[in-house]
Write a structure and sequence with these properties.
The complex is a heterodimer. Chain A has 1 helix and 16 strands. By secondary structure, chain A is mainly beta. Chain A folds into 2 domains: 100 residues, Immunoglobulin-like (Sandwich); 154 residues, Jelly Rolls, CATH 2.60.120.260. By secondary structure, chain B is mainly beta. Classes of the chains: A mainly beta, B mainly beta.
Chain lengths: 262, 335
């Protein structure tokens, strides 16, 4: 009953008021998108009488969701979704942010493919530094590649059994930056030969025309659960830009800011 | 229990019902609060169509002039009630900036057309008086298409300062006859020099207030072109500053990229160029070091506000770019 009353309280004014404006999405800030032990999430929506409802369990925020009061600390991978509410306005769209816990950090790394000199970041360390890149591709957090398959090898002193691999990539169709066409992961132990432990191939039926830029494209793949002390990750670029693109036929760019082992 | 719960809730429900009959919410901060009326304009899109609505000015008689890039009527003229009272102009495919100037009692308009690579000076009824072309003799320019002006400001002596906001980000100073006198600013100092205004708030010390939109900054320049000061406004992709009394008003096109994110709002600065109100955005706050905390949209009343005009009663009129062909809205000041 209380929920019904709350619902009526929130909705009746909107039907009677002449111009029910919609709220915008709240602001999400996190101290680290990739984290080892814990991450802190802060939400912001500085409007009198507004409140934020959120979820971190994969659901979508509604009237049953908790109300945000202070910053949250998470200790495992999560997706936070948040939505602003206010008695005088229609609720806004939800905003979401995925945070990924990194289980294993390599003891040494080798990037066999050289990034473009304009987007070389800090070299191979860029891919394993737990730093998420933003919209600025020249910030140093991203490595940019043109045409070549990106091959990275990592080494662990102690054997690991990774369940999931995440390759964080960028999509910006207008800037010629396309998602990878596929990812192959090989593992090995000691002097054993390489063994395929994971393969991911991009769907080819998705039309990227008009897609909005997105710097949080996480390519996740489950790995065959075997103990290894070295892993090779091969990320294949998109290839020639499609016929509808202004750069049709030219090779697409591939941008990666992190490779994470879970 | 259920009955008790219901009875407990009745006062809340009653309050909700009462709240329902209140007027539209008051939006803004401090002394600058408004009620937004999106339906202020009574124009008919069949007879007076618009694509992007760019800028607005008011003449002595209180008529509101607006540029749109729809060549069926590049200039629409409204009264304060939102009725169309005149419409003219078919030759301005890139009609963008609009500046009003009282030239010794004769009222003039300056239309900035980035597609024509020109600024056109007209009377209030649309008769062309003069055009200002690309700065051919300036070493900063090699061809006409590099010059894509977005805004003008008229100096105290009648000189015309043109912001090349979609071109090379220079400010070009012409004399009233159209001869180039100076070129300053440029891509090292300005990123998307979209707007410019003559700031006469300090008596006898006029300066230019220029938008560096992609940097979320306003920059002050002397009339001779020397940079004086930068005013950071994080989160505000400022279209053009509009001076009225001690305040600066401006429309913020977006508060985050991409350019069509629909995250715009309105902003008002005080005489010290500090944000005192940001209608449709978060409460403006400065930290201990005096830095403005980033602004962001909170209320989606506007998508891409492109200009704001303040009338004699301090009500605001807002024109929008790329917002579904909407007509301007009115913001009624609430005291």
């Amino acid at each position: 009953m209380r929920k019904l009353i709350l619902f009526l309280y929130l909705t009746i004014p909107l039907y009677v008021a002449g111009q029910p404006f919609r709220l915008a999405a709240p602001q999400i800030s996190v101290d680290s998108v990739f984290f080892l032990n814990q991450a802190k999430i802060s939400l912001g929506f500085d409007l009198d009488s507004a409140f934020i409802l959120y979820t971190i369990n994969g659901g979508y925020p509604d009237s049953r969701s908790p109300m945000y009061e202070k910053s949250l600390t998470i200790r495992e991978s999560a997706v936070i979704r948040a939505k602003a509410n206010h008695p005088d306005y229609l609720p806004g769209p939800f905003v979401e942010q995925e945070l990924l816990q990194v289980r294993y950090r390599p003891d040494s790394t080798w990037l066999r493919t050289t990034p473009d000199s304009l987007y070389a970041g800090k070299g191979n360390a860029t891919l394993f530094d737990l730093q998420k890149g933003g919209q600025d591709v020249k910030s140093g957090a991203w490595l940019g590649f043109r045409a070549d398959t990106v091959v990275a090898e990592v080494f662990f002193k102690k054997k690991v059994k990774c369940k999931t691999l995440v390759v964080s990539t960028l999509l910006d169709v207008n800037a010629w930056i396309f998602p990878p066409a596929g990812i192959e992961v090989l593992g090995a132990s000691g002097n054993d030969p390489w063994f395929y432990i994971g393969v991911w191939t991009a769907r080819t039926d998705i039309d990227l025309r008009g897609s909005t830029s997105d710097y949080t494209q996480f390519r996740k793949m489950h790995l065959f659960p075997m103990e290894v002390d070295r892993i090779q990750v091969r990320v294949r670029p998109f290839g020639p830009l499609p016929a509808w693109h202004s750069g049709s036929g030219q090779p697409a760019w591939l941008f990666i800011d992190e490779i994470a082992f879970q | 229990m259920k009955r008790r719960a219901f009875l407990k809730g009745v006062p809340v429900l009653g309050a909700g019902m009462l709240a329902g009959f209140k007027r539209d919410p008051v939006i803004g901060h401090g002394a600058f609060r408004y009620r937004i009326n999106l339906r202020w304009c009574h124009a008919n899109s069949a007879t007076h169509p618009v694509k992007n609505c760019h800028e607005m000015v008011m003449d002595k008689a209180g008529r509101i002039f607006m540029t749109t890039d729809d060549t069926r009527n590049n200039i629409l003229v409204f009264n304060k009630d939102g009725d169309i009272v005149d419409a003219w102009g078919h030759d301005y495919p890139g009609a963008h900036g609009l500046t009003y100037h009282d030239e010794n009692g004769t009222e003039m308009l300056y239309i900035t057309d980035y597609e024509r690579n020109q600024v056109i000076k007209t009377t209030l009824s649309g008769r062309v008086v003069r055009t200002f072309g690309w700065p051919e003799d300036a070493r900063e320019y090699t061809q006409k298409t590099e010059f894509r002006p977005t805004e003008t400001a008229i100096g105290p002596n009648g000189d015309v300062f043109v912001a090349d906001g979609y071109g090379r980000d220079f400010i070009i100073q012409y004399d009233p006859e159209g001869k180039v006198k100076n070129v300053f600013g440029g891509p090292l100092l300005l990123k998307n020099a979209h707007g410019i205004a003559l700031d006469t708030r300090v008596p006898d010390k006029p300066v230019l207030l220029v938008t560096s939109r992609a940097e979320n900054k306003l920059k002050r320049f002397s009339l001779q072109g020397a940079w004086l000061e930068t005013i950071p406004l994080p989160g505000a992709y400022i279209c053009r500053p509009v001076i009225k009394g001690p305040n600066v008003y401006f429309a913020v096109l977006i508060s985050q990229l991409p350019w069509d994110s629909g995250t715009g709002f309105i902003c008002i600065l005080d005489e010290n160029n500090r944000v005192v109100s940001a209608p449709c955005a978060n409460t403006p706050r400065y930290d201990a070091s005096g830095m403005l905390q980033p602004l962001y949209q909170t209320i989606q009343a506007f998508r891409h506000p492109h200009d704001v005009l303040a009338d004699t009663e301090d009500n605001l009129y807002v024109a929008q770019w790329n917002s579904g062909g909407v007509y301007p809205a009115r913001m009624e000041r609430v005291y």
